[in-house]
Write a structure and sequence with these properties.
Strand order of the largest sheet: 3-4-2-1-6-5-14
Low-confidence stretches: 5-38, 219-228
Distance between the termini: 58 Å
Strand content: 15-25%
Radius of gyration: 23 Å
Shape: globular
Length: 296
């Protein structure tokens, strides 16, 4: 009787172990599939954002209205929403405005029926880039709408990872089709460049501030849909380079953005990167639970 009971218990444990192993294999297979599908799904989201911004820009031009300043973009999967710096209720279809006029949104499915000029996204929001997720929604900001230096501060490793993710998305993603990134001085060294997910013709190294500011975007190309007025430049420098070369006094264009890796007293915008992956965006006021390098 006792022997039979022991054998029964042993057999039960063996069966439980086999079931657990099978479950782990299934989970491992599923997670592997998710990782494989991730980049493609991620790009589709960014393509939706790019198309939405293109439709917005073309609609405003068609209506002979000034382009709005888009501070942030949120993609929830079900809705694409832009937050405007100034209230404006005249949202071009298929965009619709809320009662305040500061938030426009649309159903991403409606973009398929919206006509565009073709030739690639020609919107002026090409420095709109993903900061991260908030409650599962993708949160993007237009760096060109942030005047003055933008400092990424906090844990050095997380700051570097976030910067690499931002740069990679700008130069390889569909939203940044008309943007170039200029890495300056120590930002051209392997600690920064080795972590970039791509090599792009829109990514340029420059040894000094003078060389960086002399860089011009590629000329407008009618066949590619490139518009000189929509081109943007993002300069990336370390905090030491910022101080040594007096970037606070640099004659940047109104459409340029300056990203500084590390703490500086001259920053107009501080984005603190925490070790848990969340961001404190300061007066920008955009909540981010998980920064983009953690999931991209």
């Amino acid at each position: 009787m006792i022997v039979s009971l022991v054998l029964f218990v042993v057999l039960g444990l063996v069966l439980l172990g086999a079931a657990a192993a099978l479950t782990r294999r299934k989970l491992g297979s599923s997670s592997g599939q998710a990782r494989t599908a991730g980049p493609g799904a991620d790009r589709k989201v960014l393509e939706t954002v790019a198309l939405g911004l293109q439709v917005l820009a073309e609609g405003r031009v068609r209506d002979a209205r000034r382009l709005p300043e888009v501070q942030s973009v949120v993609h929830s999967g079900q809705r694409l929403t832009v937050q405007l710096a100034q209230a404006d209720a005249a949202a071009p279809a298929p965009w619709t405005s809320d009662v305040s006029g500061k938030e426009w949104s649309l159903d991403p499915a409606s973009l398929r029926a919206a006509g565009t000029s073709g030739g690639g996204p020609t919107h002026p929001y090409s420095l709109t880039v993903t900061l991260g997720l908030h409650r599962g929604d993708r949160v993007l900001v237009d760096l060109a709408q942030l005047p003055g230096p933008i400092a990424l501060t906090g844990d050095d490793h997380e700051v570097l990872r976030l910067a690499q993710a931002l740069i990679t998305e700008v130069v390889s993603g569909p939203v940044g089709h008309l943007a170039t990134v200029v890495l300056v001085g120590s930002a051209t060294t392997p600690p920064v460049t080795d972590g970039l997910g791509t090599r792009s013709a829109r990514l340029y190294p420059a040894a000094t501030r003078k060389e960086a500011l002399a860089h011009k975007e590629a000329p407008a190309d009618k066949d590619s849909g490139r518009s000189a007025g929509a081109s943007r430049r993002l300069f990336v420098v370390t905090a030491a380079q910022f101080r040594d070369e007096r970037w606070a006094d640099a004659p940047l264009r109104e459409t340029d953005a300056l990203l500084v890796l590390g703490w500086i007293t001259d920053a107009e915008w501080h984005i603190a990167v925490h070790t848990d992956g969340s961001l404190d965006t300061g007066r920008l006021g955009v909540p981010v639970d998980t920064h983009t390098a953690r999931f991209s």
